[in-house]
Amino acid sequence: MEEETHEVVGHGADAAVTHGGEVVGHGADAAHGSAGIPQLDFSTFPNQIFWLLIALIAIYYVLSRVALPRIAAVLAERQGTITNDLAAAEELKLKAQEAETSYNKALADARSEAQRIAAEAKAEIQSELDAAIAEADQEIAAKSAESETRIGEIRASAMTNVETVAKETAEAIVTAFGGTPDQAAVDQAVDARLKGGAA
Amino acid sequence: MGSSTDSGNGAGKFALIAALVVLVLAVLFTGPETPTLSIHPMDQFAVTPLFGDGDIAWYTPTNVTLWMLVAVVGVILLLVVGSRGRAVVPSRAQSVAELAYGFVHKMLEDVAGKEGLKFFPYVMTLFMFIVVANMVGLIPAAFTTTSHIAVTAVLALAVFLTVTIVGFVKNGAKFLELFWVSSAPLVLRPVLAFIEVISYFVRPVSHSIRLAGNLMAGHAVMKVFAGFAAALGVASFLPILAIVAMYALELLVAFIQAYVFTILTCVYLKDALHPSH
User: Fold this and answer.
1) Is ipTM > 0.90 here?
2) What are the domain boundaries of chain A?
């Protein structure tokens, strides 16, 4: 305790001495430092200024030659990448829209083509149908005409047969009654009769 | 789901309580038996040679050299090594590098316009140096280079000289219109010009002292609390908790001061490029 107090007193005395020293011999007490403000010790100024200038020049050199161009390049590259990506996205969007338009157009084309083909097929079928119907009509007309002729023929031959049968019958009847049939008279009579019958 | 959340909370509480217990025990066993109040908050700012104990010449490697080297290496790790993948989908480190790039780039473009982008490497150098130096300065036992007025004054003077030279080279005598407020009544203009000139020359002063002062004050306050912690014995966990809170605030300050320095640089550059009001 005794010694501690002594040291405090001694220190105070030391401080007082350095303080006095500062008043007399300005700046010589820098190493002690406990008295006065080190910031106002002008003897250290050249040293501080010299090393500060070295430090500033070093930092300026490194920044302007290496760090700042590099960071600027990185930032520019990032900006460029973002811009490119946005442009690519925009382009892809346009392409998608284009694809949609062309898809819709193709769809409409296909639809109209299908309609055209259907109409064509329909028309073709219709014309074929018309032709077939006409042919069939023609055939039917031909067949019915032929049938009519044949019916006429049949009728005519039937009439001839009837005449022959009538003449032969008349001759036979005449013969049966014991007469001699006069061929010409019988024929005339039968003809007259048939005509009369017909009339 | 609910049970896992509960157990997570329980584990968190347990960890917190355990940490406090360890803190108290550590203070009990390792703390000074006879607490003394010896606070030297400014010792941490002393510039000392790295090797030996001689005088400090302009070329002597000092703790300034060491911690500026750390800051330069930090910037290179973040911006060069972090972005070496050049991936379109970035890694975590590359994201942070791109975030820093975009942050400063947008700030410069918004404030100073397209013409201001010529100065992008310059402004980026200032921002990265200040923010990394502030952050590594928060490592316990580190030396904070940006808490020294010599450092911030050089930074601010560099901005001041750049703005003034660019202003005159680009605009010639028209750069002086910056001080001649044409929208004010004619009688007021000389008065305003006087005020504008003074404020123009005060710029580098406020620009540099704002940064150095903020960092110096924060670090000194933390050192003062640390001194209390050494002196209070068992109750020292209170100042330690306060240091934890201060540390969070200082992290915020470290970033905000770098931001403020950079945006003011952008504003001054705008004045140089478009001087008319």
Assistant:
1) no
2) 47-176
